[in-house]
Amino acid sequence: MVAPRKELVEAIPRRDEEGWYPTVVARAELADYSPVRGCMVIRPYGYTLWENMQARLDARFKATGHKNAYFPLFVPESLLLKEAEHVEGFAPEVAWVTHAGQEELEERLAIRPTSETIFGVMYSKWVQSWRDLPLLVNQWCSVVRWEKRTTPFLRTTEFLWQEGHTAHRTADEAQAETMQMLEVYRDFVESDLAIPVVPGRKSEAEKFPGADATYTIEALMPDGRALQSGTSHNLGQNFAKAFDISFQDMDGERRLAWTTSWGLSTRTVGALIMVHGDDGGLIMPPVVAPTQAVILPIWGRKPEERPVIRDAADRLRRELLDAGLRVEVDWSEEKQIGWKHNEWTLKGVPIRIELGPRDVADEQAVLVRRDDPNPRPEKRSVAWSALADELKMTLNAIQANLFERAAALRTTKTTSVESFEELSAIVEGPRGFINAHWCGSAECEATVKTQTGATIRCLPLNAPAEDGRCIVDGRPSTARVLFARAY
Length: 487
What we know:
Elements: H1 5-10, H2 20-27, E1 31-33, E2 40-42, H3 44-63, E3 67-68, E4 74-76, H4 77-80, H5 84-90, E5 95-100, E6 103-111, H6 116-126, E7 135-144, E8 158-168, H7 171-191, E9 198-201, E10 213-220, E11 226-234, H8 238-243, E12 246-248, E13 254-256, E14 258-265, H9 267-276, E15 293-297, H10 305-322, E16 327-329, H11 337-347, E17 351-355, H12 357-362, E18 364-369, E19 379-383, H13 387-412, E20 414-416, H14 420-428, E21 433-437, H15 442-452, E22 455-460, E23 468-469, E24 476-477, E25 480-484
Parallel strand pairs: 3-7, 15-16, 15-17, 20-21
Antiparallel strand pairs: 1-2, 4-6, 5-6, 7-8, 8-14, 9-10, 9-22, 10-11, 11-14, 12-13, 17-18, 18-19, 21-25, 22-25, 23-24
């Protein structure tokens, strides 16, 4: 007996129940656990999502003058030690290679936790004159950070990302690059992933090891926790000093370069899952969805109807593909239509296209939106001749709706407080983004983190000037910062 919709949905924990996230990741075939501790296998459906995200982001990098390269996976220990603050920050997470076969290596090799050091060595060779600058390079790769607790996509021992590394003639150019790439990330996450973010600067305690300043985009998950979704670092001349990235300037003087680095990882896949998913499973933003629409043939009871329906489904598939849409057909004949509904709902495909015998006779198809929250979502009949245009308009509407819903949720979970007690109550209760005054002292920041588990997510770039009192010690403050518990 084929399981009806209710039974299948009940097999997935509710969105607000423990276990929803890993169940959806596994059941939707995004990823699976690997035999290597803390690592995941990204399955084709999940990797296609990442490829779509990668392509959209990579196009933005190229449009801003950056070029892709590839650097080694291994970093000699002597290089990692050259920048003291950097290595101290990553030391607990670094994985080391100590042997090649049965032979012990003369020098340990770190499996890159990030690549500032290896870029620094190469940049010191490539940069000799001001004419060699700016140097704008990005790489797509994986990195390893030995995590104690892991969750697919959100935090794994090995994860995929891109890391950009640039070198500049002046401090102003480096700062402009840092802010430009932060804006690239903001635009990508908000426009393509439909996730609203808060751009801001990290506190000194939270900044990237070895950076002068770190900027971030912070997203809020439905459970009230924050997720750092992309970072851009102004490294000043710290790495240039450590690796002698110097050049002869226009006036003949030899000067150190100013460098930046910036990165976004598969963690944003986790954000997409949590922000848009519901009790039925995933909801994919159409811009990056592996499949934007799925055609579900309803075979009917008469055997002679099947070839006709099959031909019609294939025709529509080819026409929609030619129109630039990502479409596939569920050709399975052994599954009932209710089962197919549930499976494609779980996978989060934005639009379902139903095609039965009567639809074929009338040369029309039935459209159902995945983002419709009703138990019985609205169905619309659309003529084949108008189907491509109607799909494009509907996909745009879904993309906008997902962003608006996420923004509305963030608004309801953002609170301004005037006291440490108010902050503590929110952190222990509903959670969310908390705007509060902070005097700027590391001691007050540490007190909040130690006593509540909340951290300063960022000093928002758009925070208005506002006189107030620090919620910890009452000293003067000129603007609010953003606190939250985070993943």
